[in-house]
Amino acid sequence: MRPERRADIAALALALLAGLTAALVADRVFERMPHIEDEFAFLWQAEVMADGHAYLDSPPEPRSFLVPFVVDYEGRRFGKYPPGWPAALSLGARLDAAWLVNPILGILAIWLIYRLGSRVGGKGVGLLAALLAGTSPMYLMLTGNLMAHTFSLVLGAAFSLAWFDLFLEREARQVPTRWEGRLLPPLAGLSFGLLVLTRPVTALALGVPFAVHGLILLARGGQAVRRRLMIIGGLALAVGGLLPLWQAALTGDPGLNLYTLWWPYDSYGFGPGIGVKESGHNLNWAWINTKFSLRVGRSDLFGWPGLSWLFLPFGMLALRRRWDGWLLLATLPSLVLAYMAYWASAILLGPRYYYEALPGVAVVSALGVAWLAGILADSPALWLRWRRPAVAGLLLVLVSLNAAFYLPLRVGGLHGLYGMSRAPQQHLAALSIEPALIVVHVENHWSEYGTLLPLAQPFSENDVLMVYSRGERADSRLAAIYADRPVLHYYPEEPSVIYWEPRE
Fold it and tell me: Which of 52, 129, 330, 372 has the fewest C-beta atoms under 10 angstroms from its C-beta?
């Protein structure tokens, strides 16, 4: 068997192993259920889409039927997020297996990272990039839950690979084959358009380096290059242009920021009224958020405490005139700069706003390892005898420490996040109450109610209405509206008990 074939098989095995590990995280750590507000909104919208709807009619007393980040606007109820990821997640929801969608996408993500690494530095670099990405705590945290990032990572990586194969010189030949020339432009355009429908700011940030390259190609390329660029740009605009149509279908206003329907201050940019600070979002807070996110990333990226950027500078030295590698790596500073203009920071699951730069960081880090070890043709020959075992030993120690210590603590530590688990659902389901209106009385945090939401529609086929107690008057109004149902009262601190009347 040829070495290239063996490398492909090894990469596929790595991708499958990474996906299986992500599925175990989804099952054992996150228990196949949402934990944070974003996940509830994504899954709710996915379940609605799985039934063929874009929205539902608002229920009576909407605030009692709380679903985090699901808004009510002029009689319609819908998630505040763009439709790309809920639509993809709905494919799993149809099979009652939404929790498996991200792990499956995670397999594709690792394979694409291998392909990108192979293109930049050869099969060995591709394998090493796949290993680094597949053991990344950020990869396992975000591929094991219901967030949109893994889908956008796959879309960004697919777009990048198609772009490189179309427009950058490759080994053995400089132009794509006929079928590639026909297939790759639509693939690139559709991938980028779907990315706009999934995470618009991320799409903008990832697109900047490629847009600059595209302008150079327009100026210098021939007719075939311009035609491919027009196909990519046209499809990306056509698909991405569905976003304002989606917003118009929900609200009648194509320019309305749906995020502001939940929090009026949840806008992108700088100035008063943006973000939670009295001063509004400004450059000072942007810098504070960015420094904190990058500091967290030094550990969460590859699970090497404070050292995840270790090989990146050497990879940059090795890149030289590998423009595909520079374009990949440019996505990181582009994402960092783009998200400085967003007021919120993201550290719970690592610096997830930068997650879609993982292919570039993994590939260039792998290239740095190969360059340090003297594997690349342009590596310095100094101390070559000792460099390979030294670098290999260091990498083995770092990956082993991550697998043995950092991953179990960091990823495993998310089990029962916000006190949420399947146990309360099992306790309540064991009472076999259906149909009913169950009023959940929460003392501490919304999550005590949220952990029970998967038992109610549209998350489940159960004919159970789960409502968030807002006081005696609101609860009484609901009881009158649903007079045909028994009204039961549930207190999370007594998980196996149900009350016919509010507890004294």
Answer: 52
- Candidates 66, 80, 42; CA nearest to 452 is 66
| Cα 360 from Cα 153, distance rounded (Å) | 11
Provide the angle, in degrees to the nearest 10, between the axes of the packed helices 101-121 and 3-24. Answer: 150
Beta-sheet pairing, 56-57 with 76-79? antiparallel
> Do residues 183 and 79 touch, judged by C-beta distance below 8 A?
no
- What are the C-alpha distances in Å from 17 to residues 134, 201, 252? 8, 31, 46
Residue 174 burial (C-beta neighbours within 10 Å; 0-12, 13-18, 19+): exposed
User: Does residue 4 contact residue 122 with C-beta atoms inside 8 Å?
Assistant: no
Strands (E), 303-427: none
CA distance 208 to 301: 23
Q: How many CB atoms lie within 10 A of CB 365?
A: 28
Q: Which pLDDT score, from 0 to 100, does residue 329 have?
A: 97
Angle of the 149-167 helix axis to the 323-339 helix axis, nearest 10: 140
**Whole-angstrom distance, CA of residue 55 vs CA of residue 259:** 16
Other beta carbons within 10 angstroms of residue 1's beta carbon come to 6
Interatomic CA distance for residues 100 and 93, integer angstroms: 10
Query: What SS3 class is residue 466?
Result: strand
The predicted structure's pLDDT at residue 172: 38
Given this model, what pLDDT does residue 171 score?
Answer: 45
- What backbone torsions phi and psi does residue 89 show, to the nearest 5 degrees? -65, -30
Neighbours of 143 (CB within 10 A): 30
Which regions of the chain are under pLDDT 50?
171-173
Quick one: which of 447, 422, 415 has its CA closest to 141? Answer: 415
Q: Which of 175, 158, 176, 153 has its CA nearest to residue 116?
A: 158
230 near 238, Cβ under 8 Å?
no
Nearest residue to 410 via CA among 345, 346, 349: 349
How far is CA 389 from its chain centroid? 36
C-alpha distances out from residue 334 to 301, 320, 361, Å: 17, 20, 13
The pLDDT value recorded for residue 394 is: 95
Residues 80 and 41 sit within 8 Å (Cβ to Cβ): yes
Which DSSP helix (H) or strand (E) runs through 77? strand 76-79
Nearest C-alpha neighbor of 206 from the set 243, 169, 236, 181: 236
